Amino acid sequence: MFSPATKKSSSAARKNVGIRRDYDSVLLESRSPLQDSPTVPNRPASGTPAPWSSRLSVIARMPVKKSDKEAEIDAISPVFVGEFPKVVRDAQDILLQNHASDDPSNSGGIDKETSLAWIICGKRLFMWNCLSPTAFIGCVELELPSTILEGGNVGKYSSNSSNWLICVVNWNNAKRTAGNVIPQSSSAGIVIFNKKTCRLAFWPDIYNANRFSPVTSAVLHEESEFTNYGTENSNKPLPQSKLYINSLIASPIPGTIHSCIALACSSEGKLWGFLCSPSGIHCKSIKEIFRQESKNSAPGLSKGYPRSIMWHPFTKLFDKPYRQFLLLTNHEIQCFEVKLSSEFNMSKLWSHEIIGNDADLGIQKDLAGQKRIWPLDLDVDSDGKVMTVLIAIYCKDRVTSSSYTEYSLLTMQYKSGVDIAKPTGGNVLEKKAPIQVIVPKARVEDEDFLLSMRLKVGGKPDGSAIILSSDGTATVSHYWRNSTKLYQFDLPYDAGKVLDASVFPSLEDSKDGAWAVLTEKAGVWVIPERAVLLGGVEPPERSLSRKGSSNDRSLQEERRNIAAGGNIVPRRASSEAWNAGDRQRPSLTGAALRSPQDEDSEALLFQLFHEFLLSGQADGVLDKLNNSKAFEREGEINIFVRASKSIVDTLAKHWTSSRGPEIVVSVVSSQLVEKQNKHQKFLQFLALSKCHEELCSRQRQSLQIIMEHGEKLAGMIRLRELQNTISQSDATGFGLYSGSDTRISGALWDLIQLVGERARRNTVLLMDRDNAEVFYSKVSDLEEIFHCLERQLDFVISVEMPSLVQFQRACEISNACVTIFHAAMQYRSENDIWYPPPEGLTPWCSKLIIPRGLWSISSFMLQLLNETNRLDDSARLDFFSNLELLSEVLLECYSGAITAKAERKEEYKTLLEEYWNRRDALLNSLYQQIILFFEATIQNSTEQNKEQKVILTEVSSRLLSVAKRHGGYQTMWDICSNLNDSELLRTLMHESMGPKGGFCWFVFKKLYDSEQLSKLMRLGEEFQEELASFLTEHPNLRWLHEMFLHQFSSASETLHSLSLSTDYVSPSSTENIESCGSTCRLTLANRKHYLNLAKISAMAGRNFGWEVKMKRIEADLNILQLQEEILRLLHDTEERQSIGNKLLPPVDIIELCLKMENPDLSLHAFDIFAWTSASFLRSNTTLLEKCWRNAASQDDWGRLHQMSVTEGWSDETTIQTLRRTVLFQASNKCYGPESQAFEVRFDEVLPLRQQSSELSSLKDTNSSVEAVLMQHEYFPDAGKLMLSAVMLGSDWDATNPGTSAALIDH
């Protein structure tokens, strides 16, 4: 394709090629004559060995010290990750040796969904999983039917990459079994089309090719109809007008076995459908594109169009019989929906014009200088929301008359609100961003070359795209920092053409990996994200045209110049660069680079540590490191942490994946022990140099990480021992199900493979290593085990497995997790003095990913608990024991995480709730299993009850210990209850004094809720303070406990407040406290009873002010008695029932007194005011005035006035008559010499008389009794009598009647 400028390498880098060549010379003697033969095409004269040569020796693989410039060049180099299978190499060698073709090039590709790579070499098709480590590569070899080859011979076009279209059909829809931690299909079919011969072939199952032979079609031509072409009738003569198929897709048909449909678009403007099954291939023309769109299609532009066809990724997520596919024509994108069946029912959903007169919809045509526009290819991101189109525009400069081609990317997205699942209409897309120009002025190529270009999207960096062309080049385009950067894949030796590119799938959901490139001769390479970011260059601005350009030069000269600029050194043995210090993760977007000072300090530290290993001396180390500012970084970037990580993560030089997993099994233990010894020496180095003391005081987190490396190393060693034990056990038998070698199979081995595969995917520098090798080498990433357990447990333990296998594998994984944790805790215990103070630091085993990963396997085991009846007693106990130990580890991790968050003053309530819920679920389920097992045991036992109790105590002892440590109070209560062991209960109550009362409060609440109140009060004899604190919220029992403690005054206060409570629910009486329980409401009799008890308690306590307290209680008793009297006099039965035993507020009682119009009750209303507080009296003056008006209305003052005038009453008669009135009695109650009131007198709130100046103002806020009476209807006539009654009552002394005031004269 186009060739962007590349960063040139220095002379030192070119010299390094020679250095490598010297190291690699050890291989020259073993090379075959064929490799040295001058007849091998394109073989460099330098003799640089090809990447498929045997692995280098240990000496040859030692990393060479690189200069900064060389390291920079290495950073932008592609990384070798996968070799061709041996059978492919052999086939290539035979093809070269026999010179069977004029063009020995291969065609090949990579299927993104299944990660299957394929190469056609001669008459054979080879397929293998390109993600598999070299040792595990399994290659499928298929013989191409002679009918789809041109004349049955291996001609020039039989292996030309532009002549073959291949679709992989994944029958199991990417379902992954536990043994297949590398995503691959266990059952797949192949649809292959030869453009030259126009024939189609179909393999129903490539993994069972001997059982299912391929079926082929006849030659496709324009008149092909719905015909069945099987193996028996596929040799028909070739018609004259054959089709030219541009693109091909296939999808399985739901509900069928080994049947699929394939869709193809041809240059004649048609869509073709193929129904492929083991019985044959059916073909039909199902759509004519350009005939329907003839108005929008200019003459002569349909060549090569429709250009490409692809399935819409969004519809792949749903298990439905319909799928959408996209079609790229010469001016628009079209979307169809097809039913996955033999009927080929298809409907058009929408179309969007990308080349037209509106620049807002896509690319505007007919602009000045434009001669022609080609949409070359279409691809969609993994979410199905963004579509990218590769555009080529043939232009002519009107000034210089030079011609050039402009390449650009057009990105479209669905408009907001459009339903992607069922979009309809003609305007559903919009531009996501302005058109991205890749190369503004490139060489003018012929149309066939342009139409051979392919586009891929989805790789790293995010938003990048890779463009492939038929000349074998691959260029990554990435828009970064407001400009387009291009990175061209290139190798210094002859690697052949780039056959295809894809994206390494990530084990994370909705996340793609780095770009993977399949070369013709050098295997599979990866372009790291860092290489694209650092090695990308801006597109050249000068014209690269070779047709009439003012800068016209020969194509050969131009290619020589570009090749000279691209002579970079790729990193062949990629994983060894990991040991050479380049441990950066590939995801570098936004990451800050380390400063030269950090690198110098790290180099000095390694040098000083090396000298310590040789001499055992560490004098002056601290000063040197201080001078180099080695203690200024904290956390993972600290140089001591990096040095520690380098020790524990070192890759063993002599591990080699070419020897398979056996080498891993045999040498991993010794390598881990060597790492442990070296790490221990590193700690000694820190101690002797006093760096440990400096880290402990200044950088506690860094020291914590260093020590945790030791913990993880200890855990890894124990894990390796466990795996070795499992591998040597004769009782495993897991490998038969997972399909792997029984010596190394099992759930733990599958988990190791999964974690190793995840590490390889995340770090492309490790792609050439074995999964187990990577897992055991990257010790510092041990927590990735728990990440995989949380996200991908179904890969290790599938619900499709037999139940017994699920039990076994769950126990194995559980045992592995517990082993890691116990080893880490043992290391911490043995090396406790090395650790910094823990305050505010989060241990690695308390990071959230650890407990949540443990919960994933724990919850799975909880689900299996219901099926434990399928196990025998020993297996059931083993399963229970594993879950019990795992639960203990899980809860410890949660506890550590919560403690760390609390110390750092971070929010932890959500995590605490999660911890409580999962603790209760685990402990309760485990105890239920204990009870079930115990009940099953005693049914077949003749032992006495005492012995049965001992058995239950033994089997529940460990669970009781876990519950006690983590506050599992419900489990503790259940154990004590089932054992009926009050002594154990009291012991636990003493030992579990947690927050909010601890276990004591839990026991008290249980007894209170179950109404076992006598037991609760008896516990107060031993737990006096705890019960007193608990009963603060339960005053119905608190007074009893206070009396037991001889706190009589407090008991009196409690009883008094309890008797006046309006909404409290409590026992009805102390005599019947056990039977009534805590659900009875207080009656008026109960309240009076509590008030009487309060009086007795106050008298017994005789604290300061007890006399006043007694009067207050007496007043409340009087109010209660008044309420009872009112209820007796209340004639309204319905109202009386509604009141019932409710305690009425004083205001309501007064209102009832006034309502009933009873003289005695009218007087009692004033009593209530006298019995209440001053605040009540002051806040209810209006009600008090109402009481006076009601009192005045109780007597007929008009009649009394008339009688006094008619009969001529004397003063004595008048006084005697007025003494019988309610006004007199009310005045005597409130204002008389013997009146009683609390805190304030009535005359302070409502005086009897007003001053003469105030008599004219009846609305004065400072009212009086006189002012209230003046509003009475008879006051103008009987006012003298009314005021006389009030004044006589205020002065009347029943003990001395002669002292009463005289009658009012006015």
TrEMBL record:
<dbReference type="GO" id="GO:0031080">
    <property type="term" value="C:nuclear pore outer ring"/>
</dbReference>
<dbReference type="GO" id="GO:0017056">
    <property type="term" value="F:structural constituent of nuclear pore"/>
</dbReference>
<dbReference type="Pfam" id="PF08801">
    <property type="entry name" value="Nucleoporin_N"/>
</dbReference>
<feature type="region of interest" description="Disordered">
    <location>
        <begin position="539"/>
        <end position="594"/>
    </location>
</feature>
<protein>
    <recommendedName>
        <fullName>Nucleoporin Nup133/Nup155-like N-terminal domain-containing protein</fullName>
    </recommendedName>
</protein>
<comment type="similarity">
    <text>Belongs to the nucleoporin Nup133 family.</text>
</comment>
<dbReference type="InterPro" id="IPR037624">
    <property type="entry name" value="Nup133-like"/>
</dbReference>
<keyword id="KW-0539">Nucleus</keyword>
<dbReference type="GO" id="GO:0006606">
    <property type="term" value="P:protein import into nucleus"/>
</dbReference>
<dbReference type="GO" id="GO:0016973">
    <property type="term" value="P:poly(A)+ mRNA export from nucleus"/>
</dbReference>
<dbReference type="GO" id="GO:0000972">
    <property type="term" value="P:transcription-dependent tethering of RNA polymerase II gene DNA at nuclear periphery"/>
</dbReference>
<dbReference type="InterPro" id="IPR014908">
    <property type="entry name" value="Nucleoporin_Nup133/Nup155_N"/>
</dbReference>
<feature type="region of interest" description="Disordered">
    <location>
        <begin position="30"/>
        <end position="52"/>
    </location>
</feature>
<keyword id="KW-0813">Transport</keyword>
<dbReference type="InterPro" id="IPR015943">
    <property type="entry name" value="WD40/YVTN_repeat-like_dom_sf"/>
</dbReference>
<feature type="domain" description="Nucleoporin Nup133/Nup155-like N-terminal">
    <location>
        <begin position="96"/>
        <end position="525"/>
    </location>
</feature>
